[in-house]
Specification:
Blueprint: H1 8-12, H2 20-34, H3 43-59, H4 62-71, H5 99-107, E1 128-134, H6 136-141, E2 143-154, E3 170-171, E4 180-187, E5 190-197, E6 206-207, E7 220-231, E8 240-243, E9 259-265, E10 272-274, E11 277-285, H7 286-291, E12 293-299, E13 302-308, E14 317-320, E15 336-343, H8 350-362, H9 374-381
Parallel strand pairs: 1-9, 11-15
Antiparallel strand pairs: 2-7, 3-6, 4-5, 8-9, 10-11, 12-13, 14-15
Helix pairs in contact: 2-3
Length: 382
């Protein structure tokens, strides 16, 4: 009777809801505890080391972890899919098949000339994201904002090697530094060669015997940093500022990633905006619209004077050239558009009412009967 496999979560000592980081920490702890180089001749430790590697290989792969959670060990068995859940072909899971390996097994090379990446080649660091909120005026004229972020940086203790000072890593003997191993699947005329991450070195191509204590062998440490960000004049809501080289540290000597800062603009209580155009509504009285007036119009630069022509109609729009938003590429400025709204008085004193009735008569209009009070109306009915 075959030996019953232990639950992979139990092997690593984590819960079924463990995050990626929790899995990684648990794996490193267990792998270090049972590593053959630290337990020479100990067959039990060697078996546990293989068990830990197998558990981490499955749980660190989202697809395999999902199948394991759903079907248990059967879901990640190489024969999974042959007449069972998920389908398959020839007794193995087609979802794990590398088409380059499939065609390579027939034609003696990679499909389409694809080459596997070197795990020790320089790689760019992680792209980080942050957000800032600024005022309408700050967006128009630019500003500086301070942000706080946590990012990965090269460990100063080991200079990114992951090895304790005075030590170095060795090339993995299982994958010979490639980070992946070849696996034969199927049988007979349908024997296919696929690749998988090396379980001994976890795809890094190297073995670290004495990990750096400062970074736990990763070569990177998390640090909190304060950065001053220059927001360019004319930036619009939802646009982002990119700071090259301010993201996560690179791997194997690669460049650092970038930092993308998304900008949100608080609405103005006076103005609205469309690209570089600014819109404003100016309320005037009936007399100002009819007779003309000298108005004081707010703009993002401050107040300006504008001579309102006689006979301006409600809804008229006039333009203040160059009083809009500066172009974010530095090429000029937009305009401000002012819409005229005419305010109709809701109450008049007797003198104002007589004057308005006289005006109405000169225009040949039939003015309504003069309003009377409540008691005047009662007496008239009697």
């Amino acid at each position: 009777m075959p030996e019953q496999k232990r639950d992979y979560y139990e092997v690593l000592g984590v819960s079924k809801t463990a995050s990626e980081d929790e899995l990684k920490k648990a794996y490193r702890k267990k792998a270090k505890e049972y590593h053959p180089d630290l337990n020479p001749g100990d067959k039990t430790a060697e078996a546990k080391f293989k068990e830990v590697n197998e558990a981490y290989e499955i749980l660190s792969d989202p697809s395999k972890r999902s199948r394991y959670d759903q079907f248990g060990h059967a879901g990640v068995d190489p024969s999974f899919g042959a007449g069972g859940p998920g389908g398959g072909f020839g007794g193995f899971d087609m979802g794990d098949l590398d088409l380059g390996d499939l065609f390579g097994s027939f034609f003696g090379g990679g499909f389409g000339g694809a080459q596997r990446s070197n795990p020790n080649a320089p790689r760019k660091g992680e792209t980080l994201r942050a957000a800032v909120t600024i005022s309408f005026e700050e967006a128009a004229f630019g500003c500086e904002k301070e942000i706080v972020l946590t990012r990965s940086e090269t460990c100063e203790e080991c200079h990114g090697s992951g090895c304790a000072p005075g030590t170095s890593a060795n090339t993995c003997p299982d994958c010979r530094g490639t980070g992946s191993i070849r696996i034969q699947r199927g049988g007979g005329a349908f024997t296919f060669s696929t690749s998988a991450p090396c379980t001994r070195c976890r795809g890094t191509g190297k073995i670290i015997h004495q990990p750096c204590k400062a970074c736990d062998g990763s070569g990177l440490v998390k640090k909190q940093r304060k950065l001053t960000v220059s927001i360019p004049a004319g930036i619009d809501n939802g646009q982002a500022v990119s700071l090259r080289g301010q993201g996560g540290a690179g791997h194997n000597g690669g460049p650092a990633g970038d930092l993308l800062i998304s900008v949100t603009i608080r609405p103005s209580d006076k103005f609205t905006r469309d690209n570089t155009a600014v819109y404003y509504e100016q309320t005037v009285s009936f007399a100002q619209a009819a007779l003309g007036a000298k108005l004081v119009i707010p703009t993002i630069d401050g107040n300006v004077e504008y001579n309102l022509p006689r006979g301006t109609q409600p809804g008229t729009v006039f333009r203040l050239r160059g009083k809009g938003i500066p172009s974010v590429n530095g090429r000029g400025r937009g305009d401000q558009f002012v819409t005229v709204r005419v305010s109709v008085p809701t109450s008049l004193n007797p003198e104002q009412e007589r004057a308005l009735r006289a005006f109405s008569q000169t225009m040949g209009e039939d003015a309504p009967e003069e309003s009377k009070g409540f008691f005047d109306k009662r007496r008239k009915k009697k």
